[in-house]
Design a protein that fits this description.
Elements: E1 6-9, H1 19-29, E2 34-39, H2 51-60, E3 65-70, H3 74-77, E4 87-91, H4 98-107, E5 111-116, E6 134-138, H5 153-167, E7 172-176, H6 181-189, E8 194-197, H7 199-202, H8 207-215
Parallel strand pairs: 1-8, 2-3, 3-4, 4-5, 5-6, 6-7, 7-8
Helix pairs in contact: 1-8
Bound molecules: D-xylitol-5-phosphate (DX5) and zinc ion.
Length: about 220
Amino acid sequence: MNHSLVVAPSILACDFGRLHAEVLRAEVAGADWLHLDVMDGHFVDNISFGSAFIDAIAKVAAVPLDVHLMISRPDHYFPRYVRSAKNITVHVEADHDVSRTLAAIRSAGCQCGLSLKPGTPFEVVEPYLDQIDLLLVMTVEPGFGGQPFIPEMIAKVRTAVEARAARGLSYRVQVDGGINAGTGAMAINSGADTLVVGTYAFNAPDMSLVIRQLRSAV
Ligand code: DX5
Ligand code: ZN
């Protein structure tokens, strides 16, 4: 399975006061998708933004929106994101029937993703691998941008890639948290095909250079 590399700048790290301009900046720089982190102050210790904010981005964005729900009841809330999202990713640790939520996201017309926190063993997502379009391996504790990449997560990326081959599946393997030139190259070399880049992308004076540099690791 060889997916082409997707680079998804994370809007969490942008200047919210200049939202439209920041979306355009990421697109002009070569973003494939935009990553949108929804946090409820319960599943994670932070509150970010919700569906109204994402709908506003969908009005101006030209690239697909990749919605990452870090919330406790994704089964209840995901329908509000369907109209604007291409992908909806939920956490395996949240309080819901994971299989049912994944199936419901697909039947609503979105691609479905499943994510696991750094402390969650890979075995916990194994029962759902044949139901997903994307597996999001968290490489920091979810909740905040700007944290350092947890190097031990490289082994989990490798396991995800091996499990995909062993089962003849085709889900994308996404990494999220602490991605920069070095950790991005490590993740790509371990088989990750989808990179979320927050602080490193939006803090860069030239985001296109950042994205080109990440692609050069392929
Ligand atoms: C963290 C979020 C990430 C975050 C990544 O909980 O899921 O998407 O935006 O930000 P950086 O790249 O700054 O670690
Ligand atoms: Zn995220």
